[in-house]
């Protein structure tokens, strides 16, 4: 609660005798310097207070957006980001990524579950592709969406040789909190088992938020090693960590669709 305060004291209007002459130029410069310094101090306190307010309200600190701007300066990262899409399904939204130039989108089944249609957007300007039919695998929390009439779309590739090991640096690219194509660093903690998933999943130490569902996890070569589907609390540290479906599980369901596209005349 704020401290109580006293009413402002009344003041008398200035008279001719109490009005000071216009200060000289040097004094005016000093006044402006003092005012500028005061403004800078006030802004600093405002920024600190805003961060504290976000924590007080349980809202995430938005420093990850600044980190994303720095990471995204890398030309390779910029190219990988082009394959990230926004997925919307009956009011539910998240992330997806493309595996084929004709448009084969991987996302989470819990985003598309129960939806009558799904919209996919490669751009932030509102342009969308609408689908009414897609493949879903609830046991792996995967949905695969095939676009029609598309070609030459940017793609990502699944990692098919080396699986990640603890300590590996990775990138997570997605659409958290309504933002588009945000990229952040994370670290592989290892493979764990979790309720509701038949196969072990990747545990990652990195920032994920609502909207990151379906985000690809990329290794140093830009290949997909996992797909974010949840966040949980680390059993030892209590930190929030991300969980991701490993690339081999994604390949089991995506490869038949990709193979059919490549054999269809």
Question: How would you describe this structure to a colleague?
Answer:
Among the domains are: 70-155, Thrombin, subunit H, CATH 2.40.10.10; 169-251, Trypsin-like serine proteases (Thrombin, subunit H), CATH 2.40.10.10. Helices cover 26% and strands 28% of the residues. It contains five helices and 13 strands. It has helices at residues 25-56, 63-71, 75-81, 109-112, 247-263, and strands spanning 84-89, 92-98, 104-107, 118-121, 129-131, 135-137, 142-146, 169-174, 182-192, 201-205, 216-218, 224-233, 240-246. The protein has a seven-stranded antiparallel β-sheet with strand order 5-4-1-2-3-7-6. Strand 8 (169-174) and strand 9 (182-192) form a beta hairpin.
Please specify the SSE layout and strand pairing.
Elements: H1 25-56, H2 63-71, H3 75-81, E1 84-89, E2 92-98, E3 104-107, H4 109-112, E4 118-121, E5 129-131, E6 135-137, E7 142-146, E8 169-174, E9 182-192, E10 201-205, E11 216-218, E12 224-233, E13 240-246, H5 247-263
Antiparallel strand pairs: 1-2, 1-4, 2-3, 3-7, 4-5, 6-7, 8-9, 8-11, 9-10, 10-13, 11-12, 12-13
């Amino acid at each position: 609660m704020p401290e109580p305060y006293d009413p402002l004291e009344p003041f008398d209007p200035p008279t001719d005798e109490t009005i000071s002459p216009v200060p000289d130029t040097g004094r005016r410069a000093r006044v402006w310097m003092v005012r500028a310094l005061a403004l800078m101090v006030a802004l600093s306190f405002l920024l600190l207070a805003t961060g504290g307010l976000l924590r007080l309200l349980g809202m995430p600190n938005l420093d990850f957006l600044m980190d994303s701007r720095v990471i995204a300066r890398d030309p390779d990262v910029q190219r990988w980001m082009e394959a990230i899409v926004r997925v919307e399904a009956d009011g539910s939204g998240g992330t997806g990524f493309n595996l084929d130039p004709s448009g084969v989108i991987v996302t989470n089944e819990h985003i598309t579950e129960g939806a009558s249609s799904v919209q996919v957007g490669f751009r932030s300007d509102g342009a969308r592709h609408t689908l009414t039919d897609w493949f879903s695998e609830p046991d792996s929390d995967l949905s695969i969406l095939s676009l029609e009439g598309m070609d030459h779309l940017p793609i990502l590739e699944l990692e098919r040789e080396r699986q990640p090991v603890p300590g590996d640096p990775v990138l997570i690219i997605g659409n958290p909190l309504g933002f588009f194509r945000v990229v952040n660093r994370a670290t592989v903690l290892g493979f764990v088992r979790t309720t509701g998933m038949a196969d072990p999943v990747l545990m990652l130490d990195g920032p994920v938020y609502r909207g990151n569902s379906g985000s690809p996890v990329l290794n140093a070569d830009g290949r997909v090693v996992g797909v974010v589907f949840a966040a949980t609390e680390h059993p030892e540290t209590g930190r929030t960590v991300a969980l991701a479906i490993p690339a081999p599980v994604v390949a089991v369901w995506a490869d038949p669709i990709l193979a059919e596209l490549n054999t269809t005349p």
